[in-house]
Design a protein that fits this description.
Blueprint: H1 2-20, E1 24-38, E2 49-57, E3 63-65, E4 68-72, E5 75-81, E6 87-89, E7 94-98, E8 103-107, E9 114-118, E10 121-128, H2 146-149, E11 163-166, E12 171-185, H3 188-206
Antiparallel strand pairs: 1-2, 1-12, 2-5, 3-4, 4-7, 5-6, 7-8, 8-10, 9-10, 10-11, 11-12
Helix pairs in contact: 1-3
C-alpha cells in the first residue's frame, strides 16, 4: 500500500509539472504474447500477454550510454493478463530507449533486460525491434522524433534480447507482438498520467 501511494503521488507531481510546461511527449507501447520455450511454467505465463508502456519527453536530448544514444523514460510499466499473476508491475530500474537497436532496455545497466518482481519471482522482460531509427538523425545531443521509435515490430526468438525469463524457471518466446508510438500534445500527458494512477488504484482495490 505504501508503494502504491508513493507511485500515485509521483504521478500527480509529474502531472502537475507537465501542466505548467508547454511540452509534448511520446507514448510507446509494445504488446507481446508468450509461449514457453524451456523450463517449468511456474507463474502461468503460457499464453499470457505482456503490455509494456512508457512515456518519453520529446524535448529531452539523447544522452550517451555505452557509447550509444539513449533516452530515459519518464514513466514505464508492464501490465500482465492471462496469467496466474495478472496485474500492473513497475520496473525495478529506470528504462531507456536505444534508437540504434530500436529497443527498450534497463538503465543505467544498459542493454539488459527489464527486471520485474512478479509472484515472488524475478522476471526479466526484454525485447528488441527492427531497426527503424532515422539514421544519422538519432544521435547523441539530438532531440528524438517519432520515426526513431517506430512504427515497427518486435523481433522474436531469433534474437536473445526478445524474451521473458523467470529467475531459476522458464524462458518464454513471443508468439505475437505489436508496437505503437504516438506523440501526445499537452495537456494530454498530464491526463494520461492521472488516468494510469487511477487505473492502478482501482485494480488494487478490486484485487
Amino acid at each position: 500500500m505504501r508503494k502504491l501511494f508513493t507511485f500515485l503521488l509521483a504521478c500527480l507531481l509529474i502531472a502537475t509539472a507537465y501542466a505548467k510546461e508547454a511540452r509534448c511527449d511520446f507514448i510507446y507501447t509494445a504488446e507481446v504474447t508468450l509461449t514457453t520455450s524451456s523450463g517449468t511454467d511456474v507463474l502461468g505465463f503460457e499464453g499470457a500477454t505482456f503490455e509494456f508502456s512508457a512515456i518519453f519527453d520529446c524535448s529531452t536530448e539523447y544522452v550517451e550510454s555505452f557509447a550509444l544514444p539513449a533516452i530515459v523514460a519518464e514513466f514505464s510499466q508492464v501490465t500482465v493478463t492471462g496469467s496466474d499473476f495478472d496485474g500492473t508491475y513497475f520496473p525495478g530500474t529506470d528504462v531507456a530507449f536505444y534508437p540504434s537497436f530500436s529497443g527498450i532496455y534497463s538503465d543505467p545497466a544498459g542493454l539488459n533486460d527489464i527486471p520485474l518482481s512478479i509472484g515472488g519471482e524475478t522476471v526479466l522482460f526484454g525485447f528488441e525491434t527492427e531497426t527503424t531509427a532515422s539514421g544519422s538523425g538519432a544521435m547523441i545531443g539530438n532531440l528524438p522524433i517519432a520515426s526513431d521509435f517506430g512504427p515497427t515490430t518486435v523481433l522474436g526468438p531469433m534474437v536473445s534480447t526478445s524474451r521473458v525469463i523467470v529467475d531459476g524457471g522458464a524462458v518464454y518466446d513471443f508468439t505475437s507482438s505489436s508496437v505503437n508510438v504516438s506523440r501526445i500534445p499537452e495537456p494530454a500527458t498530464a491526463t494520461i498520467l492521472i488516468s494510469l494512477a487511477g487505473t492502478t488504484l482501482l485494480r488494487r482495490r478490486r484485487g
